[in-house]
Design a protein that fits this description.
single chain, about 525 residues, alpha/beta, about 25% strand, 8-stranded mixed beta sheet
């Protein structure tokens, strides 16, 4: 192992929309419980932009509320909540270079992928995360603490990484795992056991109606539309609303707790106008909305899919498909093994669409499914979709998806619509068609393990999504390129590569050999030989 320097280069976010390349950031010496690792590669993500713009207001940049005491947090120089400068970058592969006293779980030289979500360490509106309130991977060396990266069940958030795979393929496991999680998250199809239930009616309700709902809550509150305002916000795991008054429905959304389920039982009524629906909380708050046009709430619960997986024969519409994450969704759905699917990949940029078509068409042919790329401004498909994936954080697209959806369609709100944003949704159509909004944020350990297994088995090549590379000198330009959609795929940053500006793959030159149209281990090896410095 090379000697560890006293200072390093790091990209730091020092304020809203303020990025700096710090050429002399101190390298922390690991204390008890701590590990110092060299960052091999880190991918840039659209989620980095949310942190860039919101900085201290981002829900994952705030203080850890429980799970670690103040003394433990004070011992971690990599803990940077609030206005403290942070190092972004959460799609990382690292190699341990030094361990602190008492650390025996990790050894010098070991290679890991970083799982970034610390869901057992809550913040005000989310949870702690690597690259947010704990420093991330856009630096040469990164400090990690066992007390943070170990779940209450004893699982490590460092996943052993095979030596034979490129750093890029490993770093990209994290964003691919976010895509995987979007389709595999298990959906709750009953009242939350032991949870809080709010039952609201436009008219008096027979309290025995609760027995028709599957599952048993811990407590039940009955209210009418007039008394909803008196109920505390974000405090109910389930809300069952018997009625069709738009204003009442709008007043109920804030009452849902994170992960809450809103069941609408119209009983033959109609809202008669669009309802302002908290679509931002579908993604960031994990809320779900279901309904029935009839009078039996059990029918609404029965319409909830077990998971948001694509189904055989689905007509899938991916909106914003030619961007970095959209490309991943297209490739994933083409290769998933669902028979008879048609993937409609929409994007407003014709050049990016052409690149996506060239990349994905061979996969569609190989897997005997259909790919249709289109520009919605020129040749919208004009079909009813069984599955819609939103890759642009535009609330109005959620409302539009309801209008173009077929019965029993799933609308996957993958893009991070801010949690406080709403959309005017035709909930009459939503309920009548038995549609289902779903959205996930980040990934879980199991998702990363599953994607890594696919990569090792050669069932998935995460490098398909690489569009450009850089060293830390080009990382800020890379983040701006993500912001302005300048490249059709992912940007990989290699912190050890000195002097490497942001460079599209096609501009690398003949001494960096690409595989059949995409990034690979041989190209990475040549790049590191040319630019990497000890």
């Amino acid at each position: 192992m090379n000697d560890i320097p006293h200072t390093e280069r790091a990209v730091q976010l020092v304020g809203p929309d303020k990025l700096e390349l710090n050429a002399a950031k101190p390298v922390a010496d690991p204390g008890p419980h701590q590990v110092l690792a060299r960052v091999e590669a880190v991918g840039l993500c659209f989620s980095d932009l949310k942190l860039l713009k919101q900085f201290s207001q981002h829900s994952r940049k705030s203080d850890v509320l429980t799970g670690l005491d103040a003394q433990a947090l004070a011992e971690m120089p990599n803990y940077v909540p609030g206005d403290a400068p942070t190092v972004p970058g959460h799609e990382a592969v690292i190699r341990v270079v030094k361990v602190g006293p008492g650390v025996d779980r990790y050894k010098t030289g070991e290679r890991f992928i970083v799982e970034t979500d610390y869901r057992w360490l809550p913040t005000d509106k989310s949870n702690a995360a690597f690259g947010y309130n704990f420093e991330g991977g856009l630096q040469e060396y990164v400090l990690l603490d066992e007390r943070v990266i170990t779940s209450p069940e004893g699982e490590s958030m460092l996943i052993p990484a095979p030596e034979h795979l490129s750093a890029s393929a490993l770093a990209l496991v994290e964003p691919w795992a976010c895509v995987e999680n979007a389709y595999t998250e298990v959906q709750r199809r009953t009242l939350k056991p032991g949870g809080r239930l709010l039952v609201v009616g436009d008219a008096p309700i027979d309290r025995a109606i609760v027995d028709k709902c599957p599952g048993r809550p811990g407590s039940v509150v009955f209210a009418t539309g007039d008394s909803v305002a008196a109920q505390p916000d974000a405090s109910f795991d389930d809300i069952v609303y018997f009625g069709a008054d738009a204003a009442t429905a709008e007043s109920l959304f804030p009452k849902l707790a994170p992960g809450g389920l809103f069941v609408i039982v119209q009983g033959g009524g109609k809202f008669g106008r669009p309802v302002e629906t908290q679509v931002g909380r579908v993604h960031y708050g994990g809320i779900r909305v279901v309904g029935t046009a009839g009078a039996d709430p059990a029918a609404a619960y029965a319409a909830i899919p077990a998971s948001p997986e694509i189904r055989a024969g689905d007509k899938i519409n991916i909106i914003g498909a030619a961007g970095p994450m959209g490309t991943m969704h297209v490739i994933r759905d083409l290769c998933q093994g669902a028979e008879g699917v048609t993937v409609y990949a929409g994007d407003l940029n014709d050049d990016r669409l052409a690149g996506l078509d060239a990349l994905a068409s061979p996969l569609a042919e190989k897997n005997a499914v259909v790919l249709r790329t289109y520009n919605p401004a020129k040749n919208a498909p004009g079909v009813a979709f069984d599955y819609v994936v939103l890759m642009a954080p535009v609330p109005a697209l959620a409302a539009q998806a309801v209008a173009t959806a077929a019965p029993k369609a799933i609308v996957n709100v993958f893009a991070g619509i801010p949690a406080d944003k709403t959309a005017a949704v035709d909930l009459d159509a939503y309920v009548e068609k038995q549609l289902y909004f779903v959205g996930t944020s980040g990934s879980e350990l199991k998702d990363m393990q599953q994607v890594l297994a696919k990569v090792v088995a050669r069932e998935l090549d995460t490098n398909f999504s690489v569009a450009a590379v850089s060293g830390l000198e080009g990382a800020i330009d890379g983040i701006r390129a993500v912001e302005h959609n300048l490249l059709p795929g992912k940007i990989l940053v290699y912190p050890s590569c000195r002097g490497l500006k942001l460079t599209a793959l096609g501009d690398l030159g003949g001494d960096t050999p690409l595989g059949p149209g995409h990034w690979n281990l041989e190209a990475e090896t040549a790049l590191l030989k040319r630019f990497a410095k000890p």
